[in-house]
Amino acid sequence: MKGTDLPRIPWATWRPKLLEMLVRYDRRVFAADVVAGLTVGVVALPLAMAFGIASGVTPQAGIYTAIIGGFVVSLLGGSSVQVSGPTGAFVVIVAGIIAAHGLSGLLMVTMMAGLILVFLAVTGLGQAVKFIPRPVVIGFTNGIALLIASTQIRDFLGLAIPEPPSEFFARMSSLAAGLHLWSPAALALAALSLVLILVVPRVVTRVPGSIVALALGTSAVAMFGLPVETIGSRFGGIPSGLPPFAIPEFRADLILPLLPSAMTVALLAAVESLLSAVVADSMTGERHNSHAELMGQGIGNLLSPLVGGIPVTGAIARTATNVRSGARTPVSGIVHACTLLGIILLLAPLATHVPLATLAAVLFVVAYNMGEWREIGSIWKLGWADKSVWAMTFVLTVAADLTLAVEVGMALAALLYIYRVTETTVVSTLTEHDIERGRVHALQDKPVPPYVTLLRIHGPFLFGMTDKLADATADLTAFAPMVILRLRHMSAIDATGLHALEALSDRLRTSGRVLILCGARAQPAALLHDSEFMHHVGEKNIVPHFQAALERAQALREQFSGLGDEIARDLSRAPI
Q1: Which of 137, 190, 197, 225 is the most buried (most CB within 10 A)?
Q2: CA angle, corner 61, sides to 57 and 67, nearest 5?
């Protein structure tokens, strides 16, 4: 009977990107993937060990996670060059889970998060991650970065004290009380490692500073017997051979207590992986499949605990390194996983001499880079509501825990969304002056020249809606040298929407095109002028109405000779 027929499942929705890329695969692409995979595999080694140690597990657990994540997500995911593994986003919550429920609780949380990610992929609910507003994302990213840095102070200074408490203020108090027990050798090695990490890439762009610091630091400890703590002294080294396989202990009584943590891990994995995939798209010109990516991440998190691993997600820094190293397809991610496996099989005994001070320096740089500290200034120039959401999320992440911070941040964001939508409703009487004033905004009596492409945003442009702009502007080759974005009917905008406009402006400028915005209403206009948006589009390219936008486009055309490629080259070099 038709009434009992089950809906047809669109299996192509979760088709791995690898299957699409293999259609045009050849030896040249394979060679590029191998070089990129080897490079990012070496880069991932110190990061994987450092994330494992900072999370409260062993360094090999971090490496095993990178192997499983790199292989499974590249095999089944929806991004062409995504590299997955352990990341800094999970360090704080993983350490908290281990402190409260032990390693078995963490393995359960990781597998539960994997099931949630698979569910999000199958049902399409994974698209809900786009409803997380930017102030919330920046708030808990800032908080996580601060917490990661605080966990590395002991090893950076070589403090001879027990493991500090997991709570931030208690940890800082414990560290302050033990400052007199610092180690000159550990501090000197950590400082030198930090300098190498920061300076080497500026001198030799293709050589990762973390690898140089790791190699020199390990060599110094092995050759001179420096009195610093190492992986061998704290963990007994890294076992050589294949990762051990074991099914984690399952306790039904822990499902409900661990569910909030599993939801947080799944949410972070989804946000981080899809954000990394978007970054990869912007660097390669490809389009990722978010459903397949979440499916790959879900299966990766289901399998990681089988080898004692921690949560898996897309790693933005390693993905960017993969792209810059010439990666073309998911094969590079598989090669990256095989590289780490080869290191475990052949070079594991050398890890005994890896100094924890050097890994602390690596994580200090990671914390700084992932913190997005520059975004604080732009958020602080927004309205009180956005600042309040950011501040509350940041404070709760540091002072309480990440799960509570995300919950409260999302609740505040939902209230903010309702508030902004209600503000978009306006009831007023139209006068002859209003009608006359609207003529400069009208399109009907104004011919659009061929060197102009028109875009418009209709309705509130808030978090959860910005992907519509990305979809409409995915192929910039079809756009004219000058793009006019009409904001006459955009009733409201928030920090997430503003960030999307900034990204569009930067993309257009990189392609040799200019963005002109016109007709913004009171709330969007105030936000555009009070924020740092001027640096992205230029003050002269924000005009009050459509007539002024056409005049600005004509002035730009007269300023530069010709159209097409020639004007594109001129505009791309022009100051904004």
Answers
A1: 190
A2: 155
The pTM of the full predicted model, rounded to 2 decimals, is 0.75
C-alpha span between 440 and 420 (Å, rounded): 27
- The answer to whether the CB of 136 falls within 8 A of the CB of 160 is no
| Spatial distance between the Cα atoms of 354 and 352, rounded to a whole number of angstroms | 6
Tokens of 181: 């027990």
What 207-215 contacts at long range (C-beta under 8 Å, 24+ apart), as own/partner pairs, is 208/42, 208/43, 208/321, 210/43, 210/46, 210/47, 210/362, 210/365, 211/42, 211/43, 211/45, 211/46, 213/46, 213/358, 213/361, 213/362, 214/45, 214/46, 214/354, 214/358, 214/359, 214/362
> Cα(138)–Cα(184) distance, rounded to whole angstroms?
36
Neighbours of 342 (CB within 10 A): 12
Stretch 35-44: mean pLDDT: 90
**Which has the closest alpha carbon to 109: 293, 292, 267, 272?**
267
Is 156's pLDDT higher than 90? yes
User: Which token pair is 556?
Assistant: 């730009």
Going from the C-alpha of 229 to that of each of 30, 209, 234, the distances in angstroms are 41, 21, 7
More confident residue, 241 or 302: 302
**Average pLDDT rounded to a whole number, residues 539-554:** 88
Residues 6+ apart with CB under 8 A from 332: 32, 33, 34, 36, 37, 40, 74, 81, 83, 322, 325
Comparing CA positions, the residue from 299, 411, 324, 362 lying closest to residue 35 is: 324
Q: pLDDT per residue over 248-295, tens digit each? A: 888 888 889 999 889 989 988 998 888 788 778 877 878 888 889 999
With contact defined as beta carbons under 8 Å apart, do 156 and 362 qualify? Answer: no
Phi–psi pair at 445, nearest 5 degrees: -100, 20
pLDDT classification of 300: cutoffs 50, 70, 90: very high
Give the start-to-end residue ranges of the domains of the chain. 26-130+184-370, 433-573
